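Before relying on records like the one below, remember that each one covers exactly one chain. Contacts with other chains, cofactors or solvent are not represented anywhere in the record.
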Amino acid sequence: MTAMLQAQIELLLRDNMGWSANIIGSKEIGRAVEKRMVERNLTDLQTYLQQLQISTQEIEALIELLIVPETWFFRDWEPFVFLEKYVKSEWLLKLNYRPLRVLSVPCSSGEEPYSIAMSLFNAGLMSNQFQIDAVDISKTSLDRAREAIYGSNSFRVKNLEFQSRYFTQFDNKYHLRDSVKNAVNFMYGNLVAPNFLSDKNPYDVIFCRNVLIYFDDAARVKAMETLNSLLRNEGLLFLGHAEQGQLLTSCFISIQHPFAFAYRKIENNNSELKNQQKVANKNQQLTSSPEAKSWREQKNNSPQKSDSLPKSPKTIEPIIKQENPEIRTIFTRDTVTPNQEKIKSQPSNQTSNYHLEQARKLADLGQLSEAASICENYLKTHSNSVEAYILLGEVYQGKGMEKQAEQCFQKAIYLAPNNYDALLHLTLLAEHRGDTAKAAALRRRIQRLEKS
């Protein structure tokens, strides 16, 4: 009886949120239900199910317990580098007389849409030249976003130049300045709900990262159809690193900017091939600027001017379809938490760093076999290098060798039990293969690290 009632609750969550119980985890849902029953002074699961069926407020309360707001400013970095370059190299050249419209969904506690706003300011836009709508299903997260006061856990990237420019510190908290705070319009909404934002004008740019992976198949299709309808032709869509396979491939082409995970919408009509070439030419202008520098150099160094993010990296020319089967899925490599252990190579010298740097550059160019070979040879003489194991694991992941990738991340954890990047990689791999119990345990481990 209990299992049947639990299944009905999971079905209710799926119908309302699109969430797959296989991804979220039945045990996680069960714990959240038990907590709500205690708070409501209920002892009968059937009675609680009835409350869920008639009370929107109770569904929202249960959802709040299941949401994990895992985000930080300029998460993954490169999407914002590319957004700034897009504005400078394409949007401003159009001499548009209307604002650039951007959507962030889900926006969580505001770090992403505020990062978008800072990027647009850095690109030279004034506040009246863009509009940012930020939507989330969690009212608690929206309240935090509107408050715009953040702790150190929201600042995990290496380059924190933006922190001093856009925040004012009071004790151990950082208060976002009004110029950025007022640039974002927050609203409550459900991406898979009927008529989601149907009253809004189309957007030029949509960020929808790290949510599709939690949906079941039907909800993913629904969400992608909704995003497609909300995005203008030739608009940009940014997805999470694990969500590239969710695209409606006939409607989008990839922009070959490493780790931006950006896609351009193409017109779906009889002149599609002509339009694809037109869009590909635009992508080439954006990603092959002669002034572009090494991606890794830009990520590891602060910008020379205080009002700009790093320049965009030099990348390969865009193509309509990915011809290289070794599609890159390397991610979150340059983020660091306050709890993350310092990575040390053995020995640590300029020659050792040079080899890993070369491997990264080859991986960025899609030459994954060559990058793997360098890492493997490096580890023969540097067997305690956490950094090398993580990099090799990312390369293996890009080659589709998930078992070998997992082994590398596990070796990194053996050497550095509190390494954030390795734990996150293992979590995502577990989720991808449907091992929800292991994924949930790893996520709890990450959360304990962040709280310690």
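The longest strand covers residues 231-239.
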